[in-house]
Amino acid sequence: MLDPHHTSVPRGCILTGLAVFGLLCMGCMEESPPARFTRQIEWIGKGQWLKADTHLHTKFSDGAHTVSEVVARGAGHGCDVLAVTDHADRALGAATPEYAEAIEVARREHPNLLILAGLEWNVPPWDGDEHATVLMPAGPDEFLQLADFKKQFDDYGRDSHDAALADAALTWLALQVDRDGIAPVVIYNHPSRKDARSIENVADLQRWRGINELVIGFSGAPGHQAGEPLGAYEYREFPIDRWDPAAARVGDAWDALLQAGIDVWAARAPSDFHKVAPSGVSDYWPGEFSETWMYVPDRTAAGVLRAFHAGSFFAAHGHIIREVRLVVVAPGLERPAESGEAIEVAVGTDLDISVEGLVPDFDWSGMANRIDLVELIAITPDMARVVAEQEPASGTRLLSTTIPVPQGGLVLRARGRRRVADGPDLMFYTNPIRVVARPVEPAHVVRLPDWSRSQLLGLGLCALAVVSLAVSVTQRLNSKSAPP
C-alpha cells in the first residue's frame, strides 16, 4: 500500500523539465536559411529599357542599302540600339577601313543612337552554313579587332574546315575584354535553319560554352519575317509562330540546355535586314516588326553588352508588348528575382510567380492590340512543360501563379501570344530564371549544431537543474500541506 504522505515528483514537473530541455535544444537549432541570390543583376529596378536590333546588313556585304540609310530607318522605327553586322567573308567589305568610317559617320549623324560595330561570323567548321553575330566592346581598337577576327577565324572559303578553329576564336575573343571588364558578345543566328533536327543545336552550344561563356545564346526568332518562307528556313525545320523550334517547341534545344545547367538566352528577335524591294524577297526595316528590348544599366554600348551577358532582355514581334518582366518572389529573398537571375530556395517553398508588361493599344500595323494568352514554362531535371497559362485581364499583371520548389530545382521562362486568325501568332518570349533547390531534412530529424562534449555536458546539467528545481518546489509544497 502506498504511503499517502510519500513525497514524489509529479509527472507534470518532469514533463516541464523535459519541455524546457526541448526548448533549449530548439533554441540552439539552426533555422532553414531564407532564399538567396546565387546570380544577381545589379541594375534591376534602376535600369532603363532600350529597343535594339543587333543583326542587320548593308552594302558592305549582301545588303542593298548604305549604313547611313539603314541606321536612319532603324532610328525612325524607334530603335535605340543598332548593330551593323555585315558578313565576315574575307572577300567582302566588313571590317575594312571603309566599313569603320561608314559606322563612324552614322554615329555622328545620330548622336543619341547607340551604334555597335560587329560582324556575322561564318562559324567553323560549316564553311558558310552557320552564322553568329559578334559584337565588340566600343573603343579605339574595335575595328582593328574586328578585322583581325575576320582574318583569323572566319570559315567561309577556307581550304579545310575544323571545329577547333571556333574554339580558338572564342579563346581569342576572351582576350579582347576592355579596360572596364566588358567582354565581346557572340549570338548564334537562325540556329535550326540548316539542321535536320533542331535538337542538334544542343551539342554545338555545349561545345562553345565549354570554352567560355561569350556565346550567350541564340536568336530565338530568326529575321527575314517579311518573306516566304519565314526566316528563310527551307530545309527540314521551320519556325513555329515565327520562332525557331529550338525555342518555341517546349522541351527542345533551349530547354535541354537549361536542363543541363547551361543558362543560355534566346529571347532575341532581330530583323536580319538585307533589303526592301518593290518585288521579290524583302525584309522589314530594323525595328519595324521585330523587337528586342534590353534592360540596361545605362544608355551606353557597354551597358548593352552587359545586358546581353546578363540575360536582361526580352523579344517580341508586331509591337504587341512593352517592359515585360518575369518575376519570382520567394520568402526571405531581398527583392523579387527577374529574368537572367538565379536563386537558391529550400525544397517545398512556394514561389509566387508573375509575368508583367505593358500592352499597347495598337500593334505595329495600327490595329487594336491585345495579349490573348500567357504561358509559364517550367524545366525540371526530368521534364519541360507549360505549368500555367492565363488569359490576361486588364492591367499590367498578365499571369500570376504559385509553384512549390521541387527536388532538383527548376528553371522558369514565359511567353505570350496575340492570336492571328489567318497566319502565325504574334509572340513574345522572356529569358529564364533559375531556381536552385536547397535540400531540407525530414521534419522528424532533430539537427543539433556541432557541440563539444563540454557544451553538451553543460546543456545536460542545465536540464538536470530544471528538474531538480521542480523536485525541490514540490517537496516544499508537500511538507507544508502534510498533516501535523
From TrEMBL:
InterPro entries from the UniProt entry: PHP_dom (IPR004013), PHP_domain (IPR052018), Pol/His_phosphatase_N (IPR003141), Pol/histidinol_Pase-like (IPR016195)
Keywords for this protein: Hydrolase
Domain Polymerase/histidinol phosphatase N-terminal, chain residue ranges per copy: 52-125
Pfam families per record: PHP (PF02811)
Source superkingdom: Bacteria
GO molecular function: 5'-3' DNA exonuclease activity; 5'-3' RNA exonuclease activity
Protein name: Putative hydrolase
Organism: Maioricimonas rarisocia
Record lineage: Bacteria, Pseudomonadati, Planctomycetota, Planctomycetia, Planctomycetales
